[in-house]
Design goal:
The chain is an alpha+beta fold. The chain contains 7 helices and 6 strands, in the order βαααβββββαααα.
């Protein structure tokens, strides 16, 4: 996990105990020098943005893991990559995923690709807070579709647009 190993098993956000990374990573220079500091800085920045942009925003707890983890949505393995669980309102970040982006998927964006992935998961948190996730789930129960159904795509694309701070779907 390289520099990200220090994040394994850590949580940041509401209700999370202060971690070593949070006390060691205080400046932009720290974020430029250390990948773990950069990841925490992106998480903090995204949460700060939504706290200002969305009235009543409740920050999500972010939990870092590798291998597997128990969530409010059940057991999760690293095969899932980063994800958001609406049942517990937590963002789960598989630390091996960022390596996988480069080694298996050929991503070349480095820090930008990492920030995009993180911000995307918070887009799902915003969808949950706005009730969009519940509405999609209700519609899905009426439609006989799988994970690649149009409703899933309709939930993923707005999360991408929410990365830029624009909510395009209030469905």
């Amino acid at each position: 996990l390289g520099d990200l190993g220090s994040l394994e098993g850590q949580s940041v956000g509401p209700g999370a105990a202060p971690s070593d990374v949070q006390t060691e990573c205080r400046t932009g220079a720290d974020a430029n020098e250390r990948e773990d500091c950069r990841i925490v800085a992106v998480v903090n920045s995204v949460q700060a943005y939504w706290s200002k942009a969305l009235r009543g925003y409740e920050p999500a707890k972010t939990r870092f893991f590798s291998g597997g983890i128990q969530t409010g949505c059940g057991s999760a393995s690293s095969a899932m990559g980063p994800f958001y669980c609406p049942n517990d309102g937590n963002v789960y970040i598989d630390l091996g995923f960022f390596d996988q982006l480069q080694s298996e998927f050929g991503a070349q964006g480095g820090p930008l690709a990492e920030a995009y992935v993180l911000a995307h998961e918070y887009g799902h948190h915003v969808q949950n807070l706005l009730g969009i996730s519940d509405r999609v789930q209700q519609l899905r129960q009426r439609v006989d579709g799988g994970e690649a159904d149009p409703l899933s795509v309709g939930r993923e694309l707005p999360a991408d647009f929410q990365v830029g701070g624009v909510i395009l779907c209030s469905c």
